[in-house]
């Protein structure tokens, strides 16, 4: 392997971001690729940025500032604020003697403010992404739609409840009630393990004529039964025996109510 001078590497590393973002022309792209093949440092950099892009590109990525970080930022803000107050009494505080207006003193007096702003912005940067998280209903709806689109409706495809129920053993830490509702007009299609609301859930799949009903199940304390409509989909939520049930479907609200009644029987 040939050794590259640091200068050549620095020069080429300037192309790194353009390369990762696909902004280089063919000649430079090729040149950079050849450099990558010979330069482990740049190759590692590219791998690092690509991994970072992948993570950031996921829509459900969010960070919550740790309590320690929050405390540190807030303490720093407080420190800056009190340092500013101590060094430069606020204009409304009693002054030792009348002074003429001093622009530089004024600027110095408030110079901590941009720092505060930066710190506050940092806190928001850290805290805000969490507020973009969808509601549970959004997640359930997304999961329902995904199950229809990506050919991942079921992990175990059978109308036999006695096959579906044991299939969940060892995959989840609770036993979802699996009932066949074919006689009520809701044949069981199968089941799968899904991931919703930050936890692994069981999903049972039923059919109503041409419509699919996903029933998401996970352990939860009892709560009020609710129904909702979102983007043309109907959702129903109820709880039973320490489990929460969320049914999502594009079947009618009326059909969903019938389904729930049959499921709960
Ligand atoms: Zn390099």
Summary of the model, kept short:
This protein has 265 residues and is α+β, with helices and mostly antiparallel strands.
Would you spell out the secondary-structure blueprint of this structure?
Elements: H1 6-13, H2 16-20, H3 26-38, H4 40-57, H5 67-87, H6 103-110, H7 112-127, H8 136-149, E1 156-157, H9 161-167, E2 188-196, E3 199-208, E4 211-219, E5 226-230, E6 233-240, E7 243-249, H10 253-264
Antiparallel strand pairs: 1-2, 2-3, 3-4, 4-7, 5-6, 6-7
Helix pairs in contact: 3-4, 5-7
Report on the architecture of this protein.
It is a single chain. With 265 residues, this protein is of the alpha+beta class. Helices cover 46% and strands 19% of the residues. The chain is built from ten helices and seven strands. It has helices at 6-13, 16-20, 26-38, 40-57, 67-87, 103-110, 112-127, 136-149, 161-167, 253-264, and strands at residues 156-157, 188-196, 199-208, 211-219, 226-230, 233-240, 243-249. A seven-stranded antiparallel β-sheet has the order 1-2-3-4-7-6-5, with helices on both faces. Helix 3 (26-38) crosses helix 4. The longest helix has 21 residues, at 67-87. 18% of the residues are buried. Mean pLDDT is 79; it is low at 91-98 and 126-133. Bound molecules: zinc ion. Zinc ion binds next to helix 1 and helix 4.
Mean pLDDT: 79
String of helices and strands: HHHHHHHHEHEEEEEEH
Overall structural class, as computed from helix and strand content, comes to: alpha+beta
- In what range is the share of β-strand residues? 15-25%
Total number of beta strands: 7
Radius of gyration: 29 Å
The termini sit apart by 72 Å
Which residues sit in consecutive blocks of at least 5 with pLDDT less than 50? 91-98, 126-133
Strand order of the largest sheet: 1-2-3-4-7-6-5
Bound molecules: zinc ion
User: Shape from CA axes?
Assistant: extended
Instruction: Provide a count of the helices.
Output: 10
Helix content: 40-55%
Largest sheet: 7 strands, antiparallel
């Amino acid at each position: 392997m040939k050794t590259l001078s640091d200068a050549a590497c620095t020069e080429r590393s300037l192309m790194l971001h353009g390369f990762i973002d696909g902004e280089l022309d063919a000649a430079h792209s090729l040149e950079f690729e050849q450099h990558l093949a010979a330069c482990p440092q740049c190759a590692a950099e590219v791998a690092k940025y690509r991994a970072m892009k992948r993570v950031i590109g996921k829509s459900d990525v969010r960070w919550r500032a740790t309590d320690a970080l929050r405390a540190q930022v807030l303490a720093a803000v407080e420190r800056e604020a009190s340092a500013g107050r101590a060094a430069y009494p606020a204009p409304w505080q009693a002054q030792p003697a009348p002074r003429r207006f001093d622009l530089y003193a004024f600027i110095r007096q408030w110079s901590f403010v941009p720092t505060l702003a930066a710190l506050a912005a940092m806190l928001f940067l850290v805290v805000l992404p969490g507020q973009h998280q969808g509601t549970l209903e959004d997640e359930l709806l997304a999961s329902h739609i995904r199950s229809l689109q990506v050919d991942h409706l079921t992990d175990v495809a059978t109308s036999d409840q006695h096959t579906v129920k044991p299939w969940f053993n060892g995959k989840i830490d609770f036993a979802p009630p699996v009932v066949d509702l074919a006689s009520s007009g809701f044949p069981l299609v199968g089941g799968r393990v899904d991931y919703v609301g930050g936890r692994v859930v069981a999903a049972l799949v039923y059919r109503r004529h041409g419509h699919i009903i996903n029933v998401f199940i996970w352990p939860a304390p009892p709560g009020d039964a609710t129904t909702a409509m979102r983007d043309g989909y109907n959702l129903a939520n109820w709880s039973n025996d320490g489990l929460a049930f969320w049914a999502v479907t594009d079947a009618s609200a009326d059909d969903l109510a019938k389904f729930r009644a049959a499921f709960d029987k």
